[in-house]
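Take a minute with the sequence and fold tokens given here and flag any structure token that looks odd. Thanks in advance.
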Amino acid sequence: MSAKNIRIEVMRAIEHKVSDFIDQFLIPIEDIWQPTDFLPDSQSDGFLDAVKQIQEESKELGYDFWVTMVADTITEEALPTYESWLMDVEGVDQHGENKRNGWAKWVRNWTAEENRHGDVLNKYLYLSGRVNMKEVEITTQHLIADGFDIGTDRDPYKNFVYTSFQELATNISHKRVGQMAKKKGNVLLGKMCTIIAGDEMRHHLAYREFVKSIFEHDPNQMMLAFADMMKKKIVMPAHFLRESGGTIGTAFENFSNCAQRLGVYTAMDYIDILKKLNAYWQLDNIRSLNDDGERARDYLMKLPSRLERIATRMKHPEDDYQFKWVDANGRL
């Protein structure tokens, strides 16, 4: 049997667990928070006063902060790309008799939860008055129109490694942005980012559980998929950002410098996520590996130390790059 057919069989074998995963890691629509729980009530007589308060509080937050906020928001807003990508993964089927496929149901429900993040952050940016919303909108449209290649193809094993990693990375970023906002007295934004981070953590816990289940059925190919993803490096959606007039990816390096300077998401965070995944999936305890699987495990177990040596030599320059997203008067 080919590796592809084995992957499909494994996906079918654990599909019966997906309903439990949905119940465990997602929240019913009627119970979960909505963007309007955090934003001023546009039907209220006090709406304009509430908006003014947001704009006053937003003045305390500096240039690098707003660049990071914008990039986080745009990344969340590109959700159509992520859903269409995952719906095309082997074993995920929403057509014909399979329209109630458990994996497709997971992707739809996960998408529905994620959709609220870009919604609330976009509205907050608009109300804050601190960013050039048209430039933000242009970048968002580019990111969706350009699409991306995250190195996973249609392989569910690689895709679930990617989502396990990426969801924890977004948890870290949103959580730290929220902490910074709160320190500057912006309680509303702090709460907003913190609750988004909580959603991302639940999603991370689910995807890492998917991978754990696959390891139980197909340890060799799952180990090889994990190693392959780490050799290519986990490419975050922000890697494909561009501003108006730019080309794919041209905005990423400058955004990354901002995030590093702020300490929102760093090279050490990348390494820490890898360590956490290695530990949770108990790579050192997995048995019945063939020679290729053993080599892949050895690579993954040694990788954090190798990356730490590289990270200690990395420098992130102070630069004068001016993003079109944040107006010149946003540099405080």
